Each structure stands twice: as structure tokens, then as C-alpha cells.
Amino acid sequence: MNHYGRKAQDRWAQHAPQRLAQIEDQQTFFTDLGEQIATQVSLLASQLESSRFGPLAMAGSSRENGRYLQEVSRRMTARRIAEEVVMDELVWMHDPSLSIDEAREEWEQTRPADSNLISWAERIQDAPDLAPTTVELEQKAKDWALPVWFLEGLMTAEIPGQYAKEHQSVLKEAASVRFLREVH
């Protein structure tokens, strides 16, 4: 078990001992969780390091510029940020004492409403200059776990609210994907 798995196990032992006791093979569970955290930390740290627009981005090679220590510092900072983000998502923020059904009920009460998407589409129809770029549309689709075609259809629908009702199954599936993203 890596150090992420141990941190998660310690958190559960402190905040949800009954739920921890229900896990038959704690070693495997927290080993797997620790590996999942490590993978996500590596991916996010890599994204932070390579982002051209991020505050941690650095033009050119650090060795070419003679800035080895700055490069090391930048990478360490990216890793620490990634660790905090991933641990917040997977360990610290979620109450491990909740069952999956209770967690879903709590999530449903606090998640952004689908009506926000309808309002977004109506604003674009009222002011076409607010239309998102392709990159922005793809990001919105990713954030909402919706296909791009759905958002394009919503923006061009005569009545966005009716379009959303006609595609309710897409919205429900997207909500389930977003929920699972947050609990896993």
C-alpha cells in the first residue's frame, strides 16, 4: 500500500470507523485506492507542468535556460497542487460514512441544475456573440459529461427547455457520470 492509501485508511479510521470495519479486505481496498490516487496525481501534475497557459508553465527547456532549480521547483509545485486536488476529490471532501445512495441523494441536492444549461443556451440565442468557441464548447461538454452534439442542439433549438425535455435520458446519464466522477 502506498502513502496515499495509508492516508485514506487513516482518514476512514478517524471519521468512519464503522464503514471501515465493513470492508472485508482493507489491504486490497486501500492499496487499489492508493494506486488510483497516485495515477490521477501523476496525470494532473503532468497536465499542470505542460499547460501553456498555466502559472507553472515555463517556456523552453530549463537546462537550456540554466534554470535547473526553477524547473525542479516548478515540478514539485505541480505535484503538490495535484496531490491536494486529487486527495480533496477522492478522500478528504467526501464523507466515507455515507452509503452510495445517501451520497447520491446529497449530491443531487447540491449539483448544478440542468436548468442552468437551458439558461446558458437561451443567453446565447439572445446574444449570438456569446457563442462559445469549439474549445469552450468541448470543455463545457466534458464538465457536464454531455456529448457536444447535445449542447449544439440545445443552443440551436427553437425552445431549449423543450429540447432538454426531449433528451432527458441524456441529461440523466450525464448526471450519473458526473456523480460517479466525484465519488470515485
Automatic annotation (TrEMBL):
<protein>
    <submittedName>
        <fullName>Uncharacterized protein</fullName>
    </submittedName>
</protein>
